[in-house]
Amino acid sequence: MTDCTDFDPVIDRTALTSEAVRDVDHILWKLELANFSAMSFSEVRDPSGGLGNVLAQICASAVALVTLIWLTLRYGGSSPHTAREMLAASNVVFAMHGEDTTRTRHLRDAMKNWDLGFKPVLLLGRPLSKVPSAATALDAAQEIQDALFLRPLNLAAVVNSVGEALGLFAIGIRETACYRGVLPFRERVAVAFRMALGAAHAHWWDRAATGLPIDRALFAHTGNADSSQLEQAMQKQSIQTVHVVHGTNIGWPFAGISDVALFQSGADSRLGSLLPAYGRCAHLALERPEMSCGNGNWAVLTSYTHLQHPEFVKNGSEPDCELIRWVSEAAEVAGQNPSRIIWRPHPQI
């Protein structure tokens, strides 16, 4: 057993997560368990397989499949036949969650300035509303011109992909038994749900897009079994999938199987290339900006207050608040006015 309470949150947690999923072979389960592990685990331990794991996975899978059917009946999706006409309008598609958050704004805002004609947008994630409402949640100001919003899901896709989902559930019994960490039942259900949702996504895409002249798909967020299976279905059609990464790379969390991952820095790209995930990691090299003389104001940027930050689980927002107190005291010692320091915490989802 390896305690990880005093490790570096990026370098060492990445290594510990790699150890936790060392014996997990299936790529979808490996990425899902690695994502969960990097965000929450406190130790690497011997695998805890056995009858308890089998029963837990069977129950979680049943709950997940019933939930997917119920949500699809309640909120619906898009007809593959109708979607095919929309997808045929462009050789590029976009994929993001139906929400206005950090994991969508970067690609949504970039789309405002792209003159590409029609822009098919695939709405990812667990259905929480009908398609028009999800589209409004993503683009409330209707700033994306010529956007065509689709949910790659319908009841027929769910029903016809049950066999694939059951196969993934069966694989999950073996892979979770090999996982070297603690996996709560709620997380088992969540992962199984994304496995089933992804199988439905893949079936829907095959029906809606086979034979269309689409050559590129840009994802605002990847790394889960639902978006990854959609990417796999696209890749089988020789469509290049690209993860446009929205923030700083912290290792395993949200690492996906995109053909290309486009990071914001060379350091992030190098870290991503060390993981058994993306086909290729890259970044946009920019010239170093000139230093500004400033106007007397300062900005303090922090990211501790984040639901998926391991320290936030233990300490809440106290590290952020303590840092602000230190900065304020340091400013007063240096003869600066603390009121001219602006705190910009992480834009929590």
Structural commentary:
With 349 residues, this protein is of the alpha/beta class. It has 13 helices and 11 strands. It has helices at residues 11-20, 27-40, 51-75, 80-87, 102-112, 131-138, 155-160, 162-178, 185-209, 225-236, 266-273, 310-315, 318-333, and strands at residues 2-3, 43-44, 92-97, 119-124, 147-150, 216-219, 240-244, 260-263, 280-283, 298-301, 341-344. The strands form 3 sheets. A 7-stranded parallel sheet has the order 5-4-3-6-7-8-9, sandwiched between helices. Strands 1-2 form a two-stranded antiparallel sheet. Strand 8, helix 11 and strand 9 form a beta-alpha-beta unit. The longest helix has 25 residues, at 51-75.
Compact summary:
With 349 residues, this protein is of the alpha/beta class.
Main attributes of the structure:
two-stranded antiparallel sheet, 13 helices, 7-stranded parallel β-sheet, globular, alpha/beta, 349 residues, disordered N terminus
